[in-house]
UniProtKB/TrEMBL annotation:
Belongs to the TRAFAC class OBG-HflX-like GTPase superfamily. HflX GTPase family. It comes from Cyclobacterium marinum (strain ATCC 25205 / DSM 745 / LMG 13164 / NCIMB 1802). Residues 171-198 form a coiled coil. This is GTPase HflX. GTPase that associates with the 50S ribosomal subunit and may have a role during protein synthesis or ribosome biogenesis.
């Protein structure tokens, strides 16, 4: 089909069309093509979560991005030709762009230019449910957008706000919008302070009870596990950042009550503005006594994901908390076959399959921590009892530190009851 007839077909087709995107990444000095493709898989998943379809990828081996146009001139020409020929709607870069790079790229390509942070911020904006999460995301997004406000963004923002201007906005409009955004940032900050105050009072009421937080990379199964542990119905789906708001529930196991919270998942290069304004939501993690670190063991990059989560926890000042490692999704993980089965396979097959040796992993994590890791499937409940047992053991330890006489008190209580009978 020629470009002209494709455009015509688009005009005739009135069904809502999924927006198309192309992805761009650099391959840095000590990175392999494979690693960058894995990162682009994640970027494609993020793109899908935003509601667009990634139709092509461009990579360029380059150690540092070009200060003007991120990629080199030749590559930019290549991208431009592709964008025009296939009438692409947006281009998404796997790193953050400087305000001037956004401007130059937008002028050259004449389509929406997203960088990694902006993409994540927009996903969060779509997903936030509570007033607090919404305010937090809006604030982070405006702060990020302010220096990057271009004609295109001004236009899009006005559409979002219901005051669409025709075509791109002029420099004057950009200035007006910048002023508007600064004002909005101040209002949002105030609003957030008020909401946070309410949250603090709420959290004060929770003092003196053991608090457990589910943490982990996005899409590993935290909400599924939360539902399983509390028999709640929290949205769990195969999308990145299904959960942006934190949920806290009370659980009682073996007579000991504790709180468990499900919070936003982490991701590589989480925008700093987002971490900043999500500090209060993330305080569920900061204030937790025990962390349950959920890992999607079926994900080929699960080890990198563990490292990202641990790093983010350190940044939040929660790097030293007791932690239960939960290797989730064992039902779909490529488990190491028996020796006989291995003998039957070719070297190539073994290499391709990337088998995971659960036993080896168990031993290595048992060495790293005083708490044994749990291998389970939150999806069908496999080994949930083992996790419950591990959680309650750890909760009991913490509870005992909080209330050294708790059990003795209980005995007194029981004797009182028996007296009444
Ligand atoms: N096969 C399999 N799928 C699972 C398992 N646990 C969760 N899932 C699926 O993994 C996807 C993500 O699950 P969620 O519970 O939403 O993950 P999350 O960690 O809360 O994700 P975010 O809130 O987006 O960070 C969903 O499609 C779940 O059905 C499991 O044990 N096995
Ligand atoms: Mg979730």
């Amino acid at each position: 089909m020629s470009k002209h007839s494709r455009k015509l077909a688009k005009l005739v087709d009135t069904s809502p069309k999924e927006e198309t995107a192309i992805l761009v990444a650099l391959i840095h000095q000590n990175e392999t093509e494979k690693l960058v493709q894995d990162h682009l898989d994640e970027l494609a998943f993020l793109t899908e979560t935003l509601g667009a379809k990634a139709i092509h990828r461009f990579t360029q081996r380059m150690d540092k991005p070009d200060t003007r146009s991120f990629v080199g001139t030749g590559k930019l020409e290549e991208i431009k030709a592709y964008v025009e020929y296939f009438d692409v709607d947006m281009v998404i870069f796997d790193e953050d762009l400087s305000p001037s790079q956004v401007k130059i790229l937008e002028n050259e390509l004449k389509i929406k230019v997203y960088d990694r942070s902006m993409l994540i911020l927009d996903i969060f904006l779509n997903r936030a449910q509570t007033a607090q999460a919404k305010t937090q995301v809006e604030l982070a997004r405006f702060q990020y957008l302010l220096p990057r406000l271009t004609r295109m963004w001004t236009h899009l923002e006005r559409q979002r706000g219901g005051t669409a201007t025709r075509g791109g906005a002029g420099e004057k409009e950009i200035e007006t919008d910048k002023r508007d955004i600064r004002r909005k940032i101040d209002i949002l900050k105030d609003k957030l302070k008020k909401i946070e105050k309410q949250g603090q009072t709420q959290r004060k009421g929770r003092q003196g009870i053991v608090r457990v937080a589910l943490v982990g990379y996005t899409n590993v199964g935290k909400s599924t596990l939360m539902n399983l542990l509390t028999k709640e119905n929290i949205l769990a789906e195969n999308k990145l950042f299904a959960t942006v708001d934190s949920t806290v529930r009370k659980v009682v196991l073996e007579n000991i009550p504790f709180l468990i919270s499900d919070t936003v998942g982490f991701i590589r290069k989480l925008p700093t503005h987002l971490i900043e304004s999500f500090k209060s939501t993330l305080s569920e993690i900061e204030e937790a006594d025990l962390l349950v670190h959920v890992v999607d063991i079926a994900h080929p990059g699960f080890e990198d994901q563990i490292a990202v989560v641990n790093q983010t926890l350190r940044e939040l000042g929660a790097g030293d908390k007791p932690m239960i490692m939960v290797f989730n999704k064992i039902d779909i993980a490529p488990k190491m076959p028996s020796e006989e089965e291995l003998m039957e396979m070719s070297e190539f097959e073994v290499e391709e399959a990337n088998f995971i040796d659960f036993e080896k992993l168990k031993v290595s994590y048992a060495k790293k921590s005083a708490i044994n890791p749990v291998f389970m499937a939150a999806g069908d409940g496999t080994n949930i009892d083992e996790l419950r047992k591990t959680i309650i053991e750890e909760v009991k330890k913490i509870h005992k530190k909080m209330y050294p006489h708790y059990l003795e008190d209980e005995v007194v209580d029981f004797s009182q009851y028996s007296d009444e009978e």
